[in-house]
Amino acid sequence: MLEIKNLHAKVGDTEILKGLSLNIEAGQVHAIMGPNGAGKSTLSYVLSGRDGYEVTAGSVTYKGKDLLTMEPEVRAGEGVFLAFQYPVEIPGVSTMNFLKAAVNSVRKYRGESEFDAMDFLKFVREQTKILNINDEMLKRAVNVGFSGGEKKRAEVLQMAVLNPSFAVLDETDSGLDVDALRIVGEGVTALRSPDRSMLVITHYQRLLDYIVPDMVHVLADGKIVDTGDKNLAIELEKNGYANYAEAAA
Amino acid sequence: MSTLSPISQSFVDQHGDAEFAARAPWLDQLRQSGLASFSSQGLPTPSVEEWKYTNLNVLEKLSVEPSSIDQEIDPAELAWLPEDMAAHKLVFVNGRFHQELSEIGDLPDGVRILSLAEAMTSDADLLARHLGQIGTMEDAPVLALNTAFIDDGYVVVIEKAELDNPIEVVFVSQAGDATTHHPRNLIVAKDNARMTILERHIGDGSYLANHGFEVSVDGGSHVKHYRLLEDSAAGINLSTVKTRVGKDSTYDSFVLSMGGQLSRSEIHVACEAGGAHTNLNGVYIGRDSQHIDNTTLIDHLVPNTTSKETYKGALDGKSRGVFQGAIVVAEGADGTDGQMSNKTLLLSDESEIDSKPQLEIYADDVKCAHGSTTGELEETSLFYLRSRGIPEATARAMLVEGFLAEVVEEGVDEVYQDIFKAKISTWMEN
Ligand SMILES: Nc1ncnc2c1ncn2[C@@H]1O[C@H](COP(=O)(O)OP(=O)(O)O)[C@@H](O)[C@H]1O
Ligand SMILES: [Mg+2]
User: Does domain A2-248 have CATH number 3.40.50.1010?
Assistant: First the structure.
């Protein structure tokens, strides 16, 4: 599904990713853990095509295509999705209209018919229940005045309706209380499927109780410094990243 | 007396030849006072602080011949409200009331809606009591010019009544040859009156429409005054709104400025008694070499009055926006709350905004704030939308519309929001 080879990327003049390699098969869920500032969000932005993140070496192949040359909207059409660590507020644009524009854009890209307003409402409501999102929230402007938990649930809703084949979840569990974490965890788990891969960036083992990963990687100083199964996450939670400081240096 | 510029002089000359339909000694006197005031000032030039950014020398290219109605008008071109929205409708063509195109309909007790020309015969006393009562014309030469030519416009007087349906007013400027007209409009609301006016300004060819408004809201009344300025590419639209807000009363103004080669909407609101409140909101969108000026002055004259003002714009091409907003809190006007904000998106390298928010506070215990920002679309927002598959051009349009829609949502009753939002969307698509 996704093959990252020796990826180097810089922001401004600073090199953040320093030779990162990763291979994710279809249907797999990989977790990335790592200290603050390691480059996890940078990786998520490079994969989704944000301006200002310059790839200086390496490659990313997605479904056999060169991902890095695609515009962000093309990547979305091709099935790449990023749940933002800090979802962006869009004043004056209702969540419903935003979702509809997004879904119809990717459907159009994929050669599927666009939804009209009625059909779309039905389609969205199938997804909102499990995420405990009501119609009132859909009327509000995108992320404006949303609580932390609402923002993260809205990200998962976007993932659900956009039907990606590869999703990056950047700390979708951060700042959630136990109930919100369960809702998000169950929401994401429900989206697991044999032809959908996920890269779950997290600090905490607790999300991985819901979304049991096939592999866990440690990202430190712009590189993958360790890889293991789900037990690695449990170990990391206990011992922290101190052991990797040297490996990264 | 200083010598007048040729264009100013031609207005004065034209006045000598003018034949007014509405006649009465007091009205002649009022016109004369307007003329005298205009003659002593002439049209404003950029050397005057309030006109620093808006130059009326474009008027030199216009003839100042008074307008005459000659062309047929297709009523379909005037339509702008949803079909199922009932309204008391008045149409003015080149400043003159157009009976056939208008349909005022039945009115509840306590409501008078008619043309000024008609009011001169049917309600002369009422008119004499209210017209020319608001504000001085010193330092307001454009309003003085309007006053010199008072002859028609709309008159709405509402007392102890609530108007369920909006009043719809369409001002059509029809040029043919370049023309000039000076509609004078009067809104009086008292004793817990409620009403909404939806006003649309359109035209074709080149012309000057110079509107004067006198608004008085008193005794717990609430007036909502929404205007859509959609003048022709060569049209010039000037308007001066002078509003007095009395005890526990509210004046809401919303202006969507999107037409004309030059427009200036100038609004002065005086909060004259405790509990007076005003909401001034506006959206301006310009392209090509349009010039759009929004100038406001809110006077908090007594204790415990409040105001809230938000203007937002998006400027493309070589268009230029002007925002001048002043809040003045008089000595002793404690408990004033005045909030003002102006935000502009520049969509091109060559567009420009001159933004000048201003606070003058002479009282101690007040809560006032103003802010002004100018910028481009945020990269983060644009990336967020694109990462959801929305193509860049669509994403940009959504962001601009969302930015502007906030003001529509803040300033316009929910039932009317779509009228203005749709105008903004259509503009974005072109
Ligand atoms: N826009 C930026 N400009 C400069 N440095 C940045 C920018 N964004 C992130 N960085 C730096 O890149 C490093 C990695 O950041 P990030 O990818 O956000 O880390 P993580 O998500 O792992 O906490 C940090 O040192 C951070 O300060
Ligand atoms: Mg991060």
Answer: no
Residue A91 Cα, ligand 2 centroid: separation in angstroms?
24
Residue nearest (by alpha carbon) to ligand 1 atom 16: A39
pLDDT digits (tens, 9 = 90+) for B355-385: 999 999 999 999 999 999 999 999 999 999 9
Instruction: Quote the Cα angle for B254-B325-A90, to 5°.
Output: 60
d(CA B128, CA B123): 9
The CA distance from B311 to B372, in Å, is 10
Percent of chain B with pLDDT over 70: 96
What's the CA gap between B220 and B305, in Å, rounded?
Answer: 13
Residue B229 confidence (pLDDT) above 80: yes
pLDDT band at B176 (very low <50, low <70, confident <90, very high): low
What is the domain partition of chain B in residue ranges?
6-273, 378-430
Q: Confirm or reject: Cβ of A39 under 6 Å from ligand 1.
A: yes
Angle, helix B6-17 to helix B141-148, in steps of 10 degrees: 20
Q: How far is B398 from chain A (nearest CA, A)?
A: 7
pLDDT at A84 over 70: yes
What global pTM score does this model have? 0.92
Atom in ligand 1 nearest the alpha carbon of residue A45: 17
Helix pair angle (A117-128, A95-109), 10° resolution: 100
Nearest CA in chain A to B394: A101
- Whose atoms come closest to the Cα of A34: which ligand? 1
Question: Which atom in ligand 1 lies closest to the alpha carbon of residue A222?
Answer: 14
Q: Which residue ranges make up each domain of chain A?
A: 2-248
Pinpoint the alpha helices (H) of chain A: 40-48, 72-78, 95-109, 117-128, 135-139, 148-162, 178-190, 206-210, 230-239, 242-248
Q: What is the pLDDT of residue B21?
A: 87
Closest C-alpha to ligand 1, atom 11 = A37
> Among the ranges B11-20, B67-76, B332-341, which has the highest mean pLDDT value?
B332-341
